Amino acid sequence: MNMSTQEQYLEDLLLEEEIKDQNEIVLYNDDVNTFDHVIETLIRACDHTSEQAEQCSIIVHYKGKCTVKTGDYEDLKPRCSLMLEAGLSAEIV
Prior knowledge:
It is built from 4 helices and 3 strands. The chain has helices at residues 3-20, 35-46, 50-63, 73-85; strands at residues 23-28, 65-71, 89-92.
């Protein structure tokens, strides 16, 4: 293996590890919460802009679920807890 091939292999390996370390908060649709409540909660819990939160709420409504935040588990855990406390249906995957 020449040096450039080895370097590319290591870069690919590091990128793969970085991707594996990413978790997601998935928000699920329900028949209880209003669009406004979901939008306000996403802004508060996930630091969404109002536009991002509105788009996510529409996707959840029509598709049944939507990834609303990605990142390290330690960052996502308190965010997901806020969403659950607000009555939303969400989980970290």
